[in-house]
Every structure is written in structure tokens, then in C-alpha cells.
Amino acid sequence: MPSTARSSTTFKAVIPFNRQLSIPDNLELVTKAIKSGRSAGDGPYTAKCEELLSSLLNVPRVLMTTSCTHALEMAGLLLDLRPGDEVIVPSFTFVSTANAFALRGVKVVFCDVRKDTLNLDETHLSELITPATKAVVPVHYAGVGCEMDAINELAAQHGVTMIEDNAHGLFGRYQGKNLGTFGALATQSFHETKNFSCGEGGALLINDESLVERAEIIREKGTNRSRFFRGQVDKYTWVDIGSSYVMSDILAALLYGQLLERDRVQARRRAIWERYYRELRDWAGANDVRLPYIPEHCEQAYHMFYLVMPDLPTRTRFIEHMLSNGVAAVFHYLPLHLSEYGRRWGAKVGDCPVTEDLSDRLVRLPLFYNLAEEERDKIVAAAHDFDF
Ligand SMILES: *Cc1c(COP(=O)(O)O)cnc(C)c1O
Q: Cα 162 to chain center, whole Å?
């Protein structure tokens, strides 16, 4: 990993790949949440986050969770997945997209991604569905929508439940419809590295209303405490399996303040993304570098700006070059089907050729709210300065 001090004599500040979103006014909300003495989960700020997300996205019920990983685990519990079942995930994703389901003892099946968007390849998906397939988990990579019409149709045709891992895609749209509203369930992440962040946090978006009551129970340690708080039962008790997936109200306060500033945050990210695109387009064209592709029918969430380099050695040199110019540019996911744990389901080299190829060539540039104007200048200049 890049370090800010390479040695004591040649100290050089490096523009980090990410700085967590920080809005000073939010501290007031956090202080209020702490002082209220009501800092456990499901307090007033948790409710505010849930109501805001629910109305902005048009999702019937949103539950704040401790992480996106936990929201995905809740999805696995809600669908009653068990050994013998199969769940299809892209190979090019974060480990939690697969692990949350591996925890239930299912067979994880890895699908390749499209060359243009690096999103789940619907043609490969259609070959992977079997009678044992219970769920498919599209990931909207970089906040650009997957081909939801095709994936939806395949899932419906085969009676497969769709769960969107929307960790990158909050406020993105496909054909004018919000990402996170296509699956029976969808998950969000508010980890430090995401557009909006309370350190560690997530949400489960529930579009299939028949799953709401049990989701509340699973999130509350298997109890019907949520109904108790609403006065629907006079005492609460253990009614099902579950765990501790409720976000603290202190973190919800931090997140709520950020969500209120969503337009400002997204506009800033968009400006940075568009500047990179504008100022690197000719350079990329001349040097066999590919920039992100955003289909006409997708409004992206401005989560990430990546470059696809001509080959692995060039990418390695590019990362070194950027670092020596004070910029932390980083690669991304390694193919899950070839990972030590992923191989247990029998995958081998060549199963997901696009993932294998692009994973070696992709590199990401810093993109965060507090990226200063001079830092942006420096990043673009350093890229232009690279000797191919
Ligand atoms: C960040 C991320 C996760 C995990 O989110 P946590 O909130 O850290 O659990 C899952 N899937 C994808 C695609 C992610 O980018």
C-alpha cells in the first residue's frame, strides 16, 4: 500500500485514494445523539435516515444496518437459503457479495462481467441458471446500472429472486428508475470508502413488502421488538432466528447530516468525474487506454473513475509513476472465482475471461468530496506525464 512517508529523508505527501466524506456541521447532530442518551439502534436518527431513503428512492421499507455485508447476510436469511441452493454473483466484486451467501452453505456460482460496463453479463448469466438457482446478485459497478431489463426477465422466467448489491449505486438510475428498486431486496453501504459514510454502516432496501416483518425480526436478534416499539404487541419475545444488525443512532446521526447534503456531495463528485473524463479523453484515445462507459439509459452515481490500461505491465508502471508523483492510484477487485476460497466451487482459469482480463488492467483515480482543486490539477498532470 502507498505510504505518506517513503523514508524520513524523502518525505512526500501523497494524495490519498480516498478521504472519508466529512461535513463539519454534522458534528452537532452527532453530539445531540450522544447527549440524548438514546444512542442504541432504532432511535430518532435511524428513523430519519430510513424515512429519507425510503421517500427519495421510492422503496416501501428501508432498514438501517451495521454494514452492507450484514444487509446481504440478512437477505440470505430472509430467503431461507440452504445447502443445495445456488446463488449467482459476479466474479468481479467485493468478497461480501459472495460471502454473505456462502455463510448459508449454498453453492456460489460466479458470472462474468460485460466488457463495456464491468457489470454482470446477462448472456453468461442465462447459461448459469439451473433448477437449484435461488438468487442472483447484480452489482452496479462504479454506480452504473446493470442491464436490469434483461436480468429481470431472466430472473422472473426462472423464478429466481434478485438481490441488488447497490453499494456503489446510491442515487444512480436505470431507465429513469432508481437503482435499488429492481430487486426484491437491495443493499447499500455507508463504509468509509463510499459516497456517503458513517464509518461502517449499511441499509437493506425492501421492495417485496411480504419480507418486511421478518426482516425486522431478523435484524432485532430474532425478536419482535420492532412491533413492540410500535405498540403492536404488549411485550416482545424471541420469535425467529436473527442477529444484531441494527445501526447505532450515533452513526445514523452522522449519516443523516450527509444525506441532507446529498445534492452538494453528488454535484462535487460529478464535477471531478467529468473533469477527469474531459481532460483524459484525448490522452486515453492516443494511448490505447479505455475510460468508463456510461450507457445512454443510465444515470450514474459518480462513485468511481477508472482507466483500463493496455496491459498489466503498463498498469503496474502507471501506478508506480502516479505514486512517485504523489498520487495514490489503485487497482480493484481480484477475480473471486480464482481466489483461495472461491476455487472450492470448482471454478478455474478461463471461466470468467473478461473479469480475469480487466481485473489486471483496471486502475482507479482518487475521487472524493474533499479533493482540492490543486490536487485535481496534479492528478491530471501526472497522468499526462506518463511515458507509455
Ligand atoms: C463496499 C462494498 C460492500 C461491503 O460494504 P460494507 O458496508 O463494508 O459491508 C459490498 N459490496 C460491494 C460491491 C461494495 O463495494
A: 16
